[in-house]
Specification:
single chain, 230 residues, alpha/beta, Carbamate kinase, 7-stranded mixed beta sheet, two-stranded antiparallel sheet, 9 helices, 11 strands, globular
């Protein structure tokens, strides 16, 4: 049984229109139907978290650690939602949302899926997912978000930005370093710390968009719509 880690972007499950139950149900069917794999899924925060952080800043909260902790709790709330939906749809999911990699390792191997939120302040859930992949000896990390591809520069600011279908770990680290501002609630294609973690352990990263079909292709080793890093 191989272990697969998924960094599940908050934008996919908790966007501006609320919690996307239909998407999570599709994900549950995919996970439940993969006979040769166990999953650790690390949930991001989403729009609600950014709204809370803005309110906190307006109220005078300036300490980044405190803001990070707000974000972590939102990711864990999302994780409990995903866990509940998985269980309701017949997936053998761990009953707890682990809060660190030691708790995660104690649950892996006993369940089909373990659902997590954030672990630590100062990093995004991409780093948490990279740590989870290392801790569970996962050789594949799926980064699922609204964006299917890594670009050589920010496509929102540069019209000549090129999408990259395949790149090396070193190239991913370079792109991440150029775009990661390390602010609470920030939204980058991949945390620079996470890029270094997957590089040191040789964990293949596949970026996919919001289509479950693309995620299924990536997990199954078929050509997928998105970027592959190895």
């Amino acid at each position: 049984m191989r272990n697969i880690c998924v960094s599940l972007g908050g934008s996919l499950i908790a966007g501006e229109d609320g919690f996307d139950i239909a998407y999570v149900k599709e994900l549950a069917r995919l996970v439940g139907g993969m006979r040769d794999a166990a999953f650790v899924i690390v949930c991001g925060a989403g729009s609600y978290c950014r709204s809370l952080m803005e309110l906190a800043r307006e109220a005078g909260v300036r300490n980044n650690i405190e803001l990070d902790r707000i974000g972590i709790q939102v990711t864990r709330l999302n994780a409990y939602m995903v866990k509940g939906i998985f269980k309701a749809n017949g997936v053998d999911v761990a009953p707890l949302v682990p809060t660190d990699v030691d708790e995660l390792r104690g649950l892996m191997g006993r369940y089909k899926a373990v659902i997590c939120g954030g672990f630590a302040e100062g990093v995004t859930t991409d780093t948490d997912a990279a740590l989870a992949a290392e801790a569970t000896q996962s050789k594949l990390l799926i980064n699922a978000s609204r964006i299917s591809y890594v670009y050589d520069k920010d496509p929102k600011r540069h019209k000549d930005a090129r999408r990259l279908e395949r790149l090396t770990f070193d190239r991913l680290i370079k792109i991440s370093n150029e775009n990661d501002r390390r602010n609470p609630g920030s939204n980058v294609i991949f945390d620079s710390f996470a890029a270094k973690l997957v590089a040191r352990s040789g964990i293949t990263v596949k970026f996919v968009g919001g289509e479950i079909g693309s995620l299924k292709d990536a997990v199954s080793g078929r050509p997928h719509k998105g970027t592959t890093v190895d």
